[in-house]
Amino acid sequence: MQDLTDLYQSVILDHNRRPRNYSVLPSANRVGSGNNPMCGDQITVYVQLDGDRISNVSFQGSGCAISKASASLMTVNLKGKTIAEAEAIYANLHQMVTTGKVVEDDMSDLAALAGVHQFPARIKCATLGWHAALNAAKGDAQPATTEKPSD
Amino acid sequence: MQDLTDLYQSVILDHNRRPRNYSVLPSANRVGSGNNPMCGDQITVYVQLDGDRISNVSFQGSGCAISKASASLMTVNLKGKTIAEAEAIYANLHQMVTTGKVVEDDMSDLAALAGVHQFPARIKCATLGWHAALNAAKGDAQPATTEKPSD
Amino acid sequence: MNPAWQNLRADFPILNQQVNGQALVYLDNAATSQKPQCVIDALVNYYQRDNANVHRGIHTLSMRATFAYEAARERSAKFLNATEPGEIVFTAGTTDSINLVANAWGDKNLKAGDIILLTEMEHHSNMVPWQLLAQRTGAKLRYLPVVAGDTGLLDLTQLAQVLTPEVKIFAFTHVSNTLGVINPAAALCAAAKKVGAISVIDAAQSAGHMPIDVRAMDCDFLAVSGHKMCGPTGVGLLYGRKALLEAMPPYRGGGSMISNVEYFESKWAPAPQKFEAGTPNIADVIALARAMDYLDDLGREAIAQHDEKLAALAYARLASEIPGIRMLGPAHHRSGVISFDLPGVHAHDVVTMADQEGVALRGGHHCNQPLMRKLGLSSTSRASFYLYNTEAEIERLVATLQKIQKFFAG
Amino acid sequence: MNPAWQNLRADFPILNQQVNGQALVYLDNAATSQKPQCVIDALVNYYQRDNANVHRGIHTLSMRATFAYEAARERSAKFLNATEPGEIVFTAGTTDSINLVANAWGDKNLKAGDIILLTEMEHHSNMVPWQLLAQRTGAKLRYLPVVAGDTGLLDLTQLAQVLTPEVKIFAFTHVSNTLGVINPAAALCAAAKKVGAISVIDAAQSAGHMPIDVRAMDCDFLAVSGHKMCGPTGVGLLYGRKALLEAMPPYRGGGSMISNVEYFESKWAPAPQKFEAGTPNIADVIALARAMDYLDDLGREAIAQHDEKLAALAYARLASEIPGIRMLGPAHHRSGVISFDLPGVHAHDVVTMADQEGVALRGGHHCNQPLMRKLGLSSTSRASFYLYNTEAEIERLVATLQKIQKFFAG
Ligand SMILES: Cc1ncc(COP(=O)(O)O)c(C=O)c1O
Ligand SMILES: Cc1ncc(COP(=O)(O)O)c(C=O)c1O
């Protein structure tokens, strides 16, 4: 199981075991949900939006190590960001998990998700929580689903 | 075109060119119709039934040489026969066109249809008029169609 | 000359055989085309290396199968110049595609008093689904006529009269499988749009024979069969404008077309998955994409020219060398489908006799019963050409028909 | 031992490959089975020698194709012990077959107040078509429950309570694709008959795995997928009792399912042609018949015993050697489908990790979302066995799961 440590880096295993901000957020004024109909993964994201800034964000749900860890990392990385900043971070993350290329030097702990690109079937796991969060923040009422043609 | 003379014997060509009893039968008390949905062939058979005897029979329609000649031969062979006799003749004919075996020595001019068995796609042509006639005689209201599982 | 055209007949193993002691001349391409070895190989490779169920799997074989399946969707979108792969729904063929539109779009959008406009030259597969839809909804059918005579062209002078605002659907064939007529698809779609009708193109006879550009034609739906364009049997596709597909309810229910299922109700996946219930025809979809590569290597413009050249030659030779023959369809600007009536010899007899000479023709109503009746015929004989046919084969066709005529006159 | 069983793995070229540096262990047979070379050869032979459209053609290739296609219908009738070939309708698979019944039989015979009875273990493909039918007709769904706990057996003590005279359709799976449960099909059909309901059996997971006798089961309809029983993708069949098929309106409209078409109305061909609109999946139907030969050469009773032996062994070993594992389905008298939950490791992670070891498993809801919820799970990992799997492969499975557990505990 050599390559698996590319995918399941210690950061991932850690966030999977102890997901951060894994709770309902009482101050949330936006709620988003995402599901992966192919595997049954389900996620709910709570966003407290002040103006265009994500003051706070949390999540709950069931999913694999990748989706849980990625959602957990999402909450840590998006807290305090404006929607525009959040979208930029997601754009980099998306490129990283689809191509393996780390675009920004400064991806910090998100770089742990770079190994996902070697496992194409798992890319959707890594993006599920982000979709849900961005949809909620942008006020898109549609639940995120990994079935959209674009991830 | 060697084998074709097996199929298109002179008897067939003759009945095709000058079909016998090719007319509406004013005295008919039974009318039957048959069609081959795969090729568009259409036939109408007029039967004058007296008791259980086919006193007279005629036909009209459009079809290939085989179906026309076979229907023409049918009128000649069934005229004056009881339904039971007609069914027996048809049973022999059916066996002949499907297997090539002439069951009765006494198939007379019908033996000209023996070559049909070498052309499986044409068996339905050879039986269309017979179906329609027997259906009419037996009072079966359904139009004959070659699409029935049995010919 | 494009090198792909050299030795092209060798790509089709089936052509290299004798039928009734004669080299096979396959002229039944409008019914189904033959398959190049690369398409057969695509099936073999898939089953020998990659076979697995798609979408739901994350093991290696399943990822390979899924990747190849979705790549075929991209290939198909490119083949038709669709805006995106999501506009391609894989189906079992043209008939299935048209039924999908009639059911999923039709049942939702049609009501009593609405009109479904067809043309008099439609194949049963582009007629019966609309008859069934009309029965279900109370909508009515109407037909754009074919001009009198034997050219079989649409009577466009009547278009304005039949394409009224009550028309909600205008479904027509791109190329007639009986007459070889090529209809002006873009103009018909534009006319439909003007009255607010959706356009549905039956491209069964055109997709493998000429360039198809759904954006240039500006159609709403377009139906294709794989088996008529060098692909396998049992697979085809439906192009649908994205916004229409998204607004449509599903067609069949089952696995893969859902986003959430509960015991008493379900939610659907977005298009195109919404329309692909159950395990799809994975192998044949992948092989169909290979057929598209094959056709584009030859060039569809070149194929169209080849077809038209053979058809024009055959039309001219039959008309002049077979006394009394009745030729159907136009003499020029046509597809490679030639229908004719040999007076005194029924089409069935023509086909059986031609087969004895190794020449494969088709005889019958060609799933065009009402048109046949209009032409005063119960059947025709049909020779239909494709990329591997040759002028020498037309020679064989002419000689065979002459022999048949002689036999029946004899 | 039946000689067909010797060297059987060599019949499946795909099995002879490495995945991620390890010999492939394919345990995803409930999703789709692999294909023996003879089935692949049947496709190649058809396309290289006989390919032509069926039914409407009378040239040599068309006669060969038609003969082989109809012979496949006879073969299928024999495979299921149907009374006659006319009871076999070729479809695109189980999902398509069930939709056919829901549409053609259901829309005609159901009305508001009627009940459609299903079981809680149905695959989405045997649930969603009935939900759609219920929406169209106003009929209501009802479920025969699965007993509490993890065996997944149907709670037959509740049968009398749910199978009331308002039930018009009782549709149930023969074998669960998630739990491996084998349901008592004949008894359920008899119970349905007693209240005047028709019985519809989803045989996707059973047809290639055990003897099927529709007359002994006395069912009204039975749906089969080819791809799960050594056949190609994109083909399947529906068995239907003759009298029911004859009384049903058509499903899809198009060529070949008609007896007469006019511009404004049409008449249908008799069953089974009435239900086979358009060019059928000729090559895959013919190859499916070859798969039936292959299975019967091995013996379906022997295949069932082989599956059950492997499943019992795998169940016992996993239960005893993987600490904390939650095993689903019964321990004995089951099919070759094993589902389990490894606490603390999500099924997706199990499958990805197993794939690194060359072991192909499936993880997810297996198109059984409502059942998963009832079991308090969002997904399970699944290993499913077929005729070519071996005890040595179970060894690999156990070792792999132990490794995974260690990795995640570490
Ligand atoms: C029990 C059961 N029913 C129905 C289906 C659907 O079969 P298909 O996808 O071949 O239509 C499957 C397989 O996916 C199944 O396992
Ligand atoms: C013009 C036309 N439309 C539709 C069809 C139906 O196609 P398929 O039988 O592949 O569904 C055909 C071919 O048979 C055709 O020629």
Structural description of this entry:
The complex is a heterotetramer, with 2 copies of chain A (151 residues) and 2 copies of chain C (410 residues). Chain A has 151 residues and is α+β, with helices and mostly antiparallel strands. Chain A has a single domain (2-141), classed as Sufe protein. Chain: A. Chain A is built from 5 helices and 4 strands. Chain A has helices at residues 4-7, 10-17, 65-78, 83-99, 123-137, and strands at residues 30-36, 41-50, 53-62, 144-145. Chain A has a 4-stranded mixed β-sheet, with helices on one face. Chain A starts with a helix and ends in a 6-residue tail after the last strand. Chain C has 2 domains: 3-30 and 300-409, Alpha-Beta Complex (Aspartate Aminotransferase, domain 1); 41-297, 3-Layer(aba) Sandwich (Aspartate Aminotransferase, domain 2), CATH 3.40.640. Chain C is 39% helix and 16% strand. Chain C has 13 helices and 17 strands. In chain C, the strands form 5 sheets. Chain C has a 7-stranded mixed β-sheet, with helices on both faces. In chain C, strands 13-14-17-16 form a 4-stranded antiparallel β-sheet, with helices on one face. Chains in contact: A-C, A-D, B-C, B-D, C-D. Chain A binds chain C through residues 35, 37-39, 119-122, 145, 147-149, and chain C through 55-58, 62-63, 66-67, 84-86, 258-260, 269-270, 273. The structure holds pyridoxal-5'-phosphate (PLP) (2 copies). One pyridoxal-5'-phosphate sits between chains D (30, 93-95, 123, 125-126, 173, 177, 202, 204-205, 225, 227, 367) and C (255, 278-279).
